[in-house]
Amino acid sequence: MKKNDIILIITILVITFAGVLFMGIQQRKNTDDNAMVVISIDGEEYGRYPLNQEHTEKIELPDGSFNTLQISDGYADMIEADCRDQICVNHFHIHYSGETIVCLPNKVVVEIVGGEEDDIDGATH
């Protein structure tokens, strides 16, 4: 490798690291004290719960299947589900705005949303 190749690789790595660091900081700043845990089943909102209050919700579905979500210490975690793969149960707990836990077999989505109203990102004319 030539000297210019090494400089190019190092520059790309530094820019990538800075971008990842910036996005992580932005995500942490995006979660406020009014953050909510939103549970959706098959695209329909099931419920909203404050992230800063202890709560356990057993989500019972019409077909008899279930998921159990626990909110504690500012984290949301799927602690139990009757699906085969258990990916949602083995998923890390979530805390930051925009993070999700998804149970595909039961069509359950758990998402952290900030307490503020969403602003318009842009407009088209």
Could you describe the 3D structure shown?
The radius of gyration is 19 Å and the shape is elongated. The chain has 125 residues and is an alpha+beta fold. It folds into two domains: 1-30; 36-113, N-utilization substance G protein NusG, insert domain (mini-chromosome maintenance (MCM) complex, domain 2, Sandwich), CATH 2.60.320.10. It contains two helices and seven strands; from the N terminus they run αβββββαββ. A hairpin with a 5-residue loop joins strand 3 and strand 4. It has a four-stranded antiparallel beta sheet with strand order 2-1-7-6, with no helix packed on it. A three-stranded antiparallel beta sheet has the order 3-4-5. The mean pLDDT is 88.
Short structural description:
With 125 residues, this protein is α+β, with helices and mostly antiparallel strands. The chain is built from 2 helices and 7 strands, in the order αβββββαββ.
